[in-house]
Amino acid sequence: MNVARQPVSSPTESLILVDDEDREIGFHPKAECHAGQGLLHRAFSVFLFNADGDLLLQKRSAQKPLWPLYWSNSCCSHPRESESVEEAGRRRIHEELHLECDVQFLYKFKYQASFGELGSEHELCHVFAGYTTCDVIAHPDEIAEWRYVSPDALTREIAADGDRFTPWLKMEWQRIRTDFLEDILAGIPE
Prior knowledge:
Distance between the termini: 26 Å
Structural class: alpha+beta
Largest sheet: 4 strands, mixed
Number of domains: 1
Radius of gyration: 16 Å
Order of helices and strands: EEHEEEEHEEEHHH
Strand order of the largest sheet: 6-3-8-7
Oligomer: single chain
Strand content: 25-35%
């Protein structure tokens, strides 16, 4: 279900520039951070699981300048100035998915991925996991479609047709499967 809501992001909003150690070194407009090879900035990715252990995926809106209509993890974005990454994750989950949930930090990593000549992601990305039992109400400017998928099915889909998925999802899912998935699934609230 999609409902009309206020925009939640803008090409002119400031992103937090960081060094390789995730120390803040300034701020820059979002569109410029994603131009060319990209400027290293702080970001986050959230993986939300339901009571059955299935992962919530979203297909990015056709309006997205980078990786439009690609399947990605439950939610991903950037913290704002003076906002913790965890606070930003909870805020964005509500803005994009209309869900309220807590998230748990898993790990962080740095990556750079280019989307042809249109721009790049160059992020120091904090990865979180959480649980939800609520119904998704997707923000139409951010999400074209959403669905739940079992961990095994997602792994098979990526292996069979990885080009349908964002690069950060593929990198993060590989690490989550290896190092965190067993604990995430064991911790699903009853």
